[in-house]
Amino acid sequence: MPAPAPANARFAKSHEWILTGEAESPVGISQHAQAELGDVVYIELPEVGRTVTAGESIAVIESVKAASDIYAPVSGEITAVNAAAAAETSLVNSDPYGAGWLFKIKPSSPTELDALLDEAAYLAQAG
Amino acid sequence: MVPFAGWMMPVQYKGITEEHLAVRNACGIFDISHMGEFLVSGPAARDWLNSLLTNNTTRLGVGQGHYTLLLNDQGGVIDDLILYRTGAESWFLVVNASKIDEDFAWMQSRLIVGVSLENASAIYAGLAVQGPRATAVYQQVAGAHLELPGRNGIDSFISLRGGNCIVCRTGYTGEDGFEFFCEADEAAFWWDEFVEHGAAPCGLGARDTLRLEMGYPLNGNDLSPDRTPLEAGLGFFVDMDKPAFTGREALAHQKVHGLPSKLTGLRLTEKGPPLRAHYQVFANGQAIGELCSGGVSPSLGYGIAMAYLPPAFAASGTSLQIDIRGKRHPAETLKKPFYKK
Question: Mean of the per-residue pLDDT values for chain B?
Answer without folding.
Answer: 96
